[in-house]
Specification:
Blueprint: H1 6-14, E1 19-25, E2 43-50, H2 55-63, H3 72-88, E3 91-93, H4 103-111, E4 114-115, E5 121-122, E6 130-138, H5 153-156, E7 171-172, E8 175-176, H6 178-186, H7 191-196, H8 199-203, H9 214-225
Antiparallel strand pairs: 1-2, 2-6, 3-6, 4-5, 7-8
Length: 227
């Protein structure tokens, strides 16, 4: 099989509102997951989204699924990315696969990003409004360009509103108070978070044109609250 064309992969993903989020060739010191034929993978290509571009594609797919389907967004992502993987001779993997793969480290390596105070990687264009939905693993070296570290917008943000908007101070320099956050979101005073999304995340001044619409944020918060 000839080497897959990254532009063709991007076009296949774009048909579902997804984008390729960079990639890299694994080095000899890396622990390589299996590729499509169970040989060690050589290249990792990240797949994700910017803003809510996949939402209409996902919603159309969701209408044809059982009403009680668990984790529908994960299921849709696996189906779509899996089909692209088969077309281009790759193995598709997901952030929710167990044992967990190092998606956060892969993403930083592929795009030169660093985490925000909320833990979400800060993107110079998308801000906090992006996600990684999966990855394609190839058993050949793909011709990725050099990855340069991006300017980290959080270093330029003096006020840090993302650490000052949560009513229960779930995020701080000490880390994320998960139980505190979840209890608030589930409780009687968490209505704004359930319907409009995380107040800290929404307070970030960067990438606002990519901010998820309220119905998308409500979908994710409902999933989070059901954990």
């Amino acid at each position: 099989m000839p080497s897959p064309d990254v532009d063709q992969i991007s076009a296949a993903l774009a048909a579902h509102g997804l984008i390729q989020r960079g990639g890299f060739v694994l080095s000899d010191g890396d622990v390589a997951p299996d590729g499509p034929s169970n040989k060690p993978a050589r290249s990792v290509l990240l797949v994700g989204q910017a803003g809510a571009a996949p939402w209409s594609h996902f919603q159309r797919w969701r209408e044809a699924q059982p009403a009680n389907l668990q984790n529908p967004l994960d299921s849709w992502s696996r189906e779509v990315i899996g089909a692209v993987a088969r077309e281009f001779g790759a193995r598709a993997v997901s952030p929710s696969d167990k044992p967990f793969l190092p998606f956060q480290q892969w993403a930083m390596r592929a795009e030169g990003l660093r985490p925000s105070p909320l833990g979400i990687l800060m993107h110079p264009a998308y801000g906090l409004w992006h996600a990684y939905r999966g990855a394609l693993l190839f058993e050949i070296d793909l011709p990725f360009g050099e990855v340069r570290e991006q300017s980290h917008l959080c270093d330029l943000c003096v006020g840090k509103p993302c650490l000052k908007s949560c009513p229960v101070d779930a995020y701080s320099e000490a880390g994320f108070a998960y139980e505190q956050c979840l209890g608030h979101v589930r409780g009687p005073s968490g209505g704004a978070c359930r319907t409009r999304g995380c107040l800290d995340r929404n307070a970030c001044p960067y990438g606002v044109v990519f901010r998820y619409p309220e119905d998308v944020q409500a979908f994710h918060m409902k999933s989070y609250a059901s954990l």
